[in-house]
Write a structure and sequence with these properties.
It is a single chain. The chain is mostly helical. The chain has 11 helices and no strands. The longest helix is centred in the N-terminal third of the chain and has 33 residues.
Length: about 260
């Protein structure tokens, strides 16, 4: 239960740290993506979180009663839905970005936005439904302290998620700079940055050489790698969502032999 919740929120927190930036870097060339649109997108992320908290808790209560027997199984189905939908949503983000390059179609943007909102609604639903599934597994006697103990995974998840995204983004940016620099004439590179390519690492650390600056020097037709710098991050976050789903599938009710026979 700790592992499922912890891995799920790690991925969601990772995306919360870069969602707006990804929107601008991947779809900033579209006329519709204005500062006002980006602000509305952030509001939509919050609305998706709230919708998930309300919608998934309602669905979990319904399935817990509908399936009958132990309500744990109905609640578990809802978590399977939340975690299961997050995996293709992360992958769809990469797909939409790649499809949106050099395209004026709004379909990739719609797929991107829908995938983001799916992830954040699952994040909200997992957080809001957690006390209910804790009560289904361990009983109602100690729901409050057990739910509070699970909050211990929130801080690591909130810390690791953005760190993971930032790390892989920086790795991708550095790799892109090295690749683009090879396409720039040596003399032109020295004239532009005051140092030769042998000092590239120093120029990168000083943020003198950047992807946008190199795009001004590379031959026409060179593809701007900026929208793709989150590819690896999204694959990693999809892996976290997969681990959340796998651990949730392993959940079973507590054996009746361990039940507290005392009065609640």
């Amino acid at each position: 239960l700790y592992a499922a919740f912890g891995t799920a929120i790690t991925g969601a927190y990772g995306f919360l740290s870069c969602g707006k930036l990804m929107l601008n870097e991947a779809f900033g060339s579209l006329d519709i993506v204005t500062p006002s649109f980006a602000t509305a997108f952030v509001v939509g992320m919050s609305a998706a979180n709230l919708t998930g908290r309300i919608g998934y808790t309602t669905l979990s209560d319904y399935l817990a009663k509908r399936i009958g027997g132990d309500p744990f199984f109905g609640r578990k189905h809802v978590y399977n839905i939340m975690f299961g939908m997050s995996v293709p949503a992360y992958l769809a983000i990469n797909y939409s970005i790649h499809q949106g390059i050099n395209s004026d179609s709004l379909v990739p943007l719609a797929v991107f936005s829908g995938s983001v909102f799916t992830i954040l609604s699952s994040f909200g639903g997992a957080a809001a439904t957690r006390p209910a599934i804790v009560g289904d597994i361990f009983g109602l006697k100690n729901v409050a302290p057990l739910s509070a103990r699970q909050l211990s995974v929130v801080l690591p998840g909130a810390f690791l998620g953005p760190k993971i995204v930032t790390y892989f983004r920086e790795q991708s940016v550095t790799a892109s700079i090295h690749d683009l620099s090879q396409k720039v004439d040596n003399a032109e590179f020295t004239d532009a940055f005051g140092m030769g390519k042998e000092q590239l690492e120093t120029l990168i650390s000083q943020q003198t050489v950047t992807v946008p600056r190199l795009m001004e020097l590379v031959p026409p037709g060179t593809v701007d790698p900026t929208p793709f710098v989150y590819d690896t991050s999204m694959y990693v976050l999809a892996g976290f969502a997969s681990m959340a789903l796998a651990t949730n599938l392993l959940l079973k009710p507590v054996c009746t032999s361990t039940h507290d026979k005392g009065q609640i």
